[in-house]
Amino acid sequence: MALYEYRCEHHGAFDVVRDMGTAPGSIGCPACGSRARRIFSAPMTSSTPPALAAAIDHAEKTRGEPDVVTSLPPRPRHERTAVLPLTPTLRRLPRP
Ligand SMILES: [Zn+2]
Predict the structure, then answer these.
(1) Residue 13 CA neighbour count, 13 Å, CB half
(2) Which domain holds residue 11?
(3) Distance of CA 5 from the midpoint of ligand 1 (Å)
(4) pLDDT averaged over consecutive 10-residue blocks of the chain (96 residues)?
(5) What is the DSSP letter of 52?
(6) Does some domain include residue 20?
């Protein structure tokens, strides 16, 4: 028996156990029944941080149909502005 990974466009990735070499290229999603394509991933991906795995799954899921956004993303609290140190060369420059 071997573990094969499939991905539904609506429900994400899921695993299927089948005999070695018998996995078809696509099967029905257990949640919705639509065709889920077989995907190939590197072994030992469980070491991937959960937040990164979720971000990759979200990017994959919304690749063809982006999420609908209803508001702008929050602005960072502190806008960073570049402050140049006043070196002797900069001090000689004319000021506005
Ligand atoms: Zn599905």
Answers:
(1) 15
(2) 2-61
(3) 13
(4) 92 92 93 94 73 88 84 78 77 83
(5) H
(6) yes
Residue 37 belongs to a domain: yes
Asked whether residue 93 is domain-assigned, the answer is no
Q: Answer for the pair 47, 23: CB distance below 8 angstroms, yes or no.
A: no
Q: Give residue-wise pLDDT tens across range 18-35.
A: 999 899 999 999 999 999
Number of domains in the chain: 1
The token pair at 76 is 């960072």
For residue 38, what is the domain's CATH number?
2.20.28
Tell me what pLDDT residue 60 has.
87
Please give the distance, rounded to the nearest whole angstrom, from the Cα atom of residue 41 to the centre of ligand 1: 19
What is the whole-number distance in angstroms between the Cα of residue 35 and the centre of ligand 1? 8
